[in-house]
Amino acid sequence: MGKKHQRDMRSKAPQEVDEASTSTTSVVLAEEPVAGGGAAGSPTPTKMKKKEYEKEMRRLQGELVAMQEWVKATGAKVCVVFEGLDSAGKGGTIRRITERTSPRVFKHIALPTPTEREKSQMYIQRYIAHFPAAGEVAIFDRSWYNRAGVEPVMGYCTPEQSTKFLEQVPAVERAMVDNGIILIKYWLNVSVDEQTRRLEDRIEDPRKIWKLSPTDLKSYSRHYEYCKARDAMFAATNTAWAPWYVVDNDDKKRGRLNIISHLLSQVPYEPLPAPAVKMPKKPRPGGYVEPGLPVYPIPTPF
Q1: Which of 99, 191, 245, 296, CA to CA, is 20 to 30 A from 34?
Q2: Any idea what DSSP says for residue 177?
Q3: Using one digit for the tens of pLDDT, what is the confidence trace for 153-208?
Q4: How far apart are CA 198 and CA 195, in angstroms?
Q5: Regarding the domain with residue range 32-37+48-266, which homologous superfamily does it belong to in the CATH classification?
Q6: What is the pTM of this model?
């Protein structure tokens, strides 16, 4: 994607919402995601080669840094929500978004189980504390939408609590947008076959076993209950001011690139002029000599 195309993408930021509009926009989902992220009925893209993927990722991460500098300079507030089935690729996508950006600007928020005190609060209260201030991008790895998905499916809240949440959350998100927050919500889809493969991989790979919780295994058997909960969530919260963007993420490489490309298109940033940077002269010891203090070097097996 060239610079001209990237500028065109940025010009397509969401338009202001009619103050009188309360209607929802439509979301159409296939029963199962199409492998490789292609549209239903279209040819499945060939698997992306690692070299091509890393080249595109490097370019997009450069654009994320440009977006970061614009957010800092303008005091913009960006809130990105990632939801989806277990092993849909939320964490990996967030890591690629944040790995070349500043943690002072791009804040990865993955809240633990609520404390007893937090359980007594208004449900969304603990999330509000993490909403972005000026010059910040808050990325939620699961969010207040737990009450629309994980909690009702797993029996952690009552149906009445989930229904009440779905009635109230559009007004909260409208208040966020009205207060200048750019709110972007992603739902990551994954097919049963691919979810099975990823969960089995977590069991077998010692680097990934930490990702596997008892809840993940219980959730796996309730795949279609999650689909029903997702459908109810979309029906209630896919609003004109905070629509859901759906990603078929069976192909992680393409999914990550597509998400980052779309995220960049939703923030009306412009690259700032590059500062003139000149490398200073190489430092001279000026008579300094190491004193020979006792130190404990680590072993060097590599």
Answers
A1: 99
A2: H
A3: 999 999 999 999 999 999 999 999 999 999 999 999 999 899 889 888 888 888 88
A4: 5
A5: P-loop containing nucleotide triphosphate hydrolases (3.40.50.300)
A6: 0.83
